[in-house]
Amino acid sequence: xxxxRTLGNLIWxxxxxxxxxxxxxxxxxxxxxxxxxxxxxxCIYIDSMATIRRTSQPHxxxxxxxxxxxxGEESLHDEEQELEDEKVFLIDEAMGFxxxxxxxxxxxxxxxxxxxxxxxxxxxxxxxxxTVFTANNFEITMYQCMYERKHQKSHFSAEEEDITKFQISxxxxxxAITDEKEDDLHQIEKPSxxxxxxxxxxxxxxxxxxxxxxxxxxxxxxxxxNVRCQLLRxxxxxxxxxxxxxxxxQQLAQPLEPRMxxxxxxxxxxxxxxxxxxxxxxxxxxxxxxxxGVLSEFQGVFGECMYETLNQQSWAKxxxxxxxxxxxTYQDDFDTASNEARAGEESEQDSDEYSDHEESSExxxxxxxxxxxxxxxxxxxxxxxxxxxxxxxxxxxVRGNKIGVFKHNEREGxxxxxTIKNVTDSKGKxxxxxRVVLHEQDKxxxxxxxxxxxxAYKMDLEYGKVVEEWSMPGTSGVxxxxxxxxxxxxTDNKTMVGHSHNAxxxxxxxxxGSKIAQAEFKQYARGNDFTCVTTTDNGSVAIAGSKGDIKxxxxxxxNAKTALPGLGDPIIGIDATGNGRHVIATCKTxxxxxxxxxxxxxxxxxxxxxxxxxxxxxxxxQLRPEHVAAMRQAVSFTPARxxxxxxxEEKTIVTSTGPYVITWNFRRVKNGHYExxxxxxxxxxxxxxxxxxxxxxxxxxxxxxxxxLPRRSMVSPAEALK
Length: 722
Hints:
This is Vacuolar import/degradation Vid27 C-terminal domain-containing protein. By secondary structure, this protein is α+β, with helices and mostly antiparallel strands. Helix content is 17%, strand content 38%. It contains twelve helices and 41 strands. Strand 21 (452-460) and strand 22 form a beta hairpin.
């Protein structure tokens, strides 16, 4: 009799039950390194249970270790604490899972495959009440899950020896950054080496272990035990990162640049970044340092070198307060990948929370109908370039000198409505919009054309015609126009806020001649180089610049109340919560989320200056380098946005890069949890924004299509990039 198959019929029989097998009582430990090959055994949950669960993805399973509360104890924990009362591990043969005996009790040990704690050993010790039969079932089910993940098919077709192979070979594929290293872990395609400039000065050096991410196994594989990680100054404000092995042989070398996407973790003593070879193939490297002190010292020097690279000026010229602000930003302890299976589960929870009464098959049929209706809009060589989402029931997509109009239907989808063709000015000249803003209760749209930045055009959306042309001379070119306040487009308000590279002003179309209100015009020093602007509910203004700096105003035409320094990268988009508490700024490879409430006087930075010594914390949101390597392309974010709506709390942040839509849970980010979810399309995303008044649906513009994305279809990076 095949015992594996017999037990499988009992455990796997009910496909609707996500839980396969469970050990209801035990203790959960972590074996944390304390020195060279030394570890301490730390109890994480004194009372816990171990469960093997299905996930939403076929042939993919998780091992969940959950804290068990005594009666009444659970009610004492708030929601955020509850989220931390379970640790989840993706089941893979590489986790080195095995059964053993610990102080007379059955124990299971494995190592984490998650990036931030990769190689960290965990242990679950069963209580005495756990029978041998239950422990054996649990062990066998783990190996069956490993079989299904590896072969992407049911284990019921496997022979007994196919399953036992996982038990026999469990030591052979331990994670690459543990002490167990097999030759097969080193067989990864490595990037080509670059030549180091011949003239340089040493700036910093630290020793560590070098690992390279393998997208095939989703693991970092060890490349060298003892390496010297060096920062070299090759020219004024130019630095290189070089890694040498113990024999002095070059392992890698690259100049410091924004695409490196550096991530530091104090908790796990790791530095992860991206490397691009001459063919622009992308890789992800990891160095694990021997101590937090070594990491901190290296990280501090790295931040200074990156600042000088981006700003082309000396770090020593930065004020102490601004230095501290930027250092804190670089020192966030990223934990986005600490539990990707948890992110997948949260996606499923969102599905339950936001499920309307629609089926995926209906959505597919609806999309097919929309494609047929949109043929007329698509019959040219132009591509979609801009998206504007209305507050009523329309979205607008710019395509050359045409504007496609899409109606939001009752099933959170889109129906093609009509095309506004041949957008022209009063002289019949084509307008190719480079900026569009909905205006006057979505009855109008204000257009700008990059070929004439001193003019704006007001289109009547009911008739599809330009009815007004606004002259805006004397600004060296208007770059952006936005509503007077975040939701002014819900009203008949006429005025708007605009800016050029070094000026900010109010636009009043009721004025004769120039539409710039001179009483609310202010020109600033040329070094500001403004790039984008946003407003809050009460009309406060946040404006950003090409060096990553942000200025906060409560009155147009005056000086800023608060100035926040940048990290050196241009800001390409900015948004604020309705109440002005938070600002999110988009750079090419990361987002900056800033809480502008002064904790001392409880006033916003828009209304009162934040003292230099009390600058707010800037949370830097970015994709993990190993995810970028799996995407196989550099990050280039579109402007990030909060969900919007009158009296609607901001819950989610959305952006995109390449063919990927990315969302962060705003509430969890504020509490220090930076995991994100992903949806991949077959083409690059042009722009995206939430449907007005909620965060369940995201309107996504692709080069040749526009669609509504249910947020519940977002998944964890582990699922999206496999």
